[in-house]
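FAQ
Q: What does a multi-component entry look like?
A: The components come first, one per line:
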Amino acid sequence: MQKYSIFNLIKNAFLKHENWDLAWKDPTPKKEYEVVIIGGGGHGLATAYYLAKEHNITNVAIIEKGWIGGGNVGRNTTIIRSNYMHDDNALFSEFGMDLWRKMSQDLNYNVMFSPRGIINLAHSDAQMNVYARRGNSMRLNGIDAVLLNREQVKEIIPMADFSDNVRFPIFGGLMQPSAGTARHDAVAWGYARQADSMGVDIIQNCEVTGFDISNGKIQGVRTSRGDIKVKKIGLCVAGSTNILAEKLNMTLPVETHLLQACVSEPVKPVLDRVVTFGAGHFYISQSDKGEMVMGGDLDGYNSYAQRGNLPTLQHVLTEGIAMMPFLSKLKMLRTWGGIMDMSMDGSPIIDKTHIEGLYLNCGWCYGGFKATPASGWTFAHTIAQDRVHKLNSGYSLSRFNTGHLLDEKGLGTKTWIS
Amino acid sequence: MLYIKCPHCGMRSQNEFSYGGDATVKRPDLNKEVSDQDWDNFVYNRKSLRGKHLELWQHLSGCRQWIKVERDTATHEIFRTLKANEDNS
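Then the predicted structure of the entire assembly, as C-alpha cells:
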C-alpha cells in the first residue's frame, strides 16, 4: 500500500496526482470467508481492521447494502468523549480515547482528531452536585474531569448567555479536557483503506437477504450478490438491526429512531470547545470550516426515514438559542437525519448470541461515533476468540434478562422519550 | 410535520401529541405465572418494524386520550387512527 506522507504528496504533485493508488478495491464476493461483517459503517470497518491487525484474520468480507460510510458514521456530530459515570461505560470509552489519540498514526490517515474538550453545562445546584459525583467517578477511573464554576465557564465560553433573567442560568459545568471531535468520514475511509490493504474484501451495493443456519450454527449468508459460506458473522448495522433480526427470528431490546443534526453557515472561529446544554438536549461545536455543528433530541417516534421533521429541529434549536443567543442570527446551511439503534437502557450491546457464530453489535443510541475504535476492537476480539473481552462484558445481551442494566442516564426502558 | 387524525377531535398537528410506542405489546396476564422470557418481551424486546407500525399516541395538548395510529415508519404515511379500545384487526 502506498504510504500517505509529505514526500509522496510532493512526488505526486509533480505527476499531476494521476498515479495515486485506489484507497480500496471493489472486489466481487468470494464463495467462502472465515468471517463476514455485515455493515460497512465505522464499527464494521473498524471490526474488520482489528480482526486483521490484532488477530491475523484476513479472510474477511464486509458486506454493505449501500456504500461504506454512508450511514451514521457520515451523519453524526463527530463528538468524542468518555465522560461516563458507570465503570463499564467509562473504561470502555477511555480505552477508545487512547485509540483515538493514536488513530491518525495507526491508520496513516489524518482523522483530524481535535481534543478540544467538552463542557456539560449545569443549570442548578442539584445538577452541580450530580456533575461533581460523575466527575469524581470519572477521575477514579483515570479519566480527566474538571468541575467548573460559573466564572470559569464564562471565561471559556463568554458567548453563552450569562445574563440574570434567563430561565436556565448557567451555574457551572463539568469539563473533560481530553474529549473532542474528529473528521468522521476520514475515520471510515482510514479504516477501510487499512483493512483493504490487509486483505479484507469491502463489498458494497450488496444487501443481505437471508441467513443459512442449521443446528443452531451459522453456515452462511445469502446476499443480493450471491450466497457466501461462512461460520462467523458479525452484525454491525445500527438502525437496520431490527430488520436483520427479523430474518434471524430474533426480537431485540432495540428500537430504531431518527436523530437529526444540522450545521449553520460558516462563520469565523467563535467556539473552540464542545458544549452541551444541561437543561435539555442540545450539543454544539464548531467545525474547522467554521460551521456550527448542532444536534439534540430524537424525533421521538419509530422511524427508518433517514430524514427529519421540523418540530424537533425547532425544539432543539430553541434550546441552542437559550444557551447561546447569537445562534439566532445564523442561517441554517444543512440538516439531515440518521437512524439510531436505541437500546432499552441507553447502553450498547456487543455480545455473542444464542446462534453459534452470530455476533451482535448494536444499541449505540446517541453515542456510536465516539465508540468506533473501541467497538471495533472489542467486537473483533469477541468474534476472533469466541468470547467477550473484559471491556465489553458489561454490554451483554442477557443483561436485560438478568437485571444488570447499564442505565447511565436513568431513563428507564423508553430511551426515546425526550 | 405529521398530521394525526384524533378519533375524538379530528385532524391535528403532531405538536399536540406525545408518542407511546408499539401498540401491539400486551402486558402478560398477572393471574398466571409469567416466564422471564414473556416478561422480557413485554418490557424490553421490540420488533421495531420498517413499514406498517401500530403505535400508541396521546393527544396530550388536546383531549388527553390515548389513541392508536397505524403509520409507515419509512414514509410516515398514516393509514388509520383508532380509539385506544378499538379492535385493530
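Q: Is there any commentary attached?
A: Sometimes. For this entry: Residues 1-26+51-89 of chain B form a domain with the Folate-binding fold fold (CATH 3.30.2270.10).
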